[in-house]
Amino acid sequence: MLLVLCVDLDDDLGRKTGFTTPVIGRDPVEEAAIALATEDPEDSDVNVIFQGLHVYDDLDERDESVEVAVVTGNEDGDVAANREVGDEVDTVLASLSTAEDVTALVITDGAQDESVIPVIRSRVPIDGVRRVVVRQAQNLESMYYTIKQVLDDPETRGTVLIPLGILLLIYPLALIGSALEMPGFVLGTTSALLGLYLISRGLRLGDRLDTAVERARRSLYAGRTTLLAYVVAAALFVLGGVSGTNELEAVRESTAGEVSAPVMLAALVYGSIQWLAAAGVTTSLGQITDEYIAGSLEWRYLNAPFYVVSIALVLRAVSAFFLDRVAISYLAAALTAGTLLGIASTLAFAVLESRYADSEDESESETDAEGRRKADSV
Prior knowledge:
Layout: E1 2-8, H1 12-17, E2 23-24, H2 26-39, H3 44-61, E3 66-72, H4 78-95, E4 103-108, H5 117-121, E5 126-131, H6 143-152, H7 154-174, H8 182-202, H9 205-222, H10 225-254, H11 261-294, H12 303-322, H13 328-377
Parallel strand pairs: 1-3, 1-4, 4-5
Antiparallel strand pairs: 2-3
Helix pairs in contact: 2-3, 7-8, 10-11, 11-12, 12-13
Region (Disordered): 356-378
Keywords: Membrane, Transmembrane, Transmembrane helix
Protein name: DUF373 family protein
C-alpha cells in the first residue's frame, strides 16, 4: 500500500481550522483542505493537501492500493514539531488495516517541511518526496503585497527580520566618526530606525504590547490588586534608582581619587536596595491577594515576601561592607539572619500546607464515609 502523506510542519491546519490531526482518509482530508482554504486561501499547505488528494485519485483510478493522510507538527518548529509529526505518523500507520507492506509518498511545500523526512523514513519506507510549488506571475503588480506577506509570516519574522534589523543597527556604529556630517547623520538615523522597526516586527512587540494593554484593562475592570501593586512597584523602582544614584554621588565626593567598579556597584545597591525590596514585597503581596480572591492560593506562595526581605538584607549588608560602613561580624550576622529567615519561612509554610492538605483529606474521607452510610441505610 502507498501512503500519500501530506506534511504540515507548523500545524496551520490545526491552528486555523480546529481539525484534530492526523486526518486520515480521502473524505476527511478533503474536508480539512476545504476548511483550511476557506479560512486562509493564501496558505501554501492548502496546495499540499489538494496535491495529496490529486495523487490519491490518480492512483485510485489505476486500482492501486493507496491511502491519504495529513500529519502536522506545531508552530514552535524544530525538534518538537518533528517529534509530533513522528507520533502522528505512528498513529496513521497503526490505523491502516492492511497486510501489505506500506510505503510513503511525502508531499510538502518547501525545504523546511522536508526536514522531517528522516523522522518519517525511520517509521516507514519512502518512495518519493514531492514539493508543491505554486505557479505565480513573474511580474508582480506591486512589491507591497510581497513585503506585507513577509512581515506577516511568523516563520520569516524570526529568521529574517531580526538578523536584518541587527545589521541595520550595526551600520550606524560605523558612522560615528561622521555622525555630525549631514549625509552620515541621515543615513545612520534612517538605518537605526529601520533596524528597530524590523526587530520590533520580528519579536512581535506590537502584538505583545496590545496583549499587555488588554490584560491590564481586564485586570482594572476585574478589580485585581496586582495592577495597582505593579504601578506602586514601578514608582518604588524609580525612587530606588534615584536613591542609588544619590548614594553613588555621595561616595564619589567623599572618596579621594578614582572609585573602583565594585565600590560603585556597592553604592548603587546600598542606596536602592530598600526601595527595590519594598517594590518586591508590594508585587508579591498583590499577587498573593489575587490568588486568595481567586481561590487558588497555596501556602508556598507566602514565601515570596520573606525571600525578598532575606535577599535585600543580604545585599544591603554586603554592599555596606564594601563601602566600609560595617564590620565583618555584622556581615556574617546579616548573612546568617537572611539565610535563616528564608529557611524558616520555607519550612513553616511547607508544614502548614502539609497539615492543611491532611485535614482536607480527612474531611473529604469523613464526608464520603457519611455518604456511604446514608446510602447503606437507604
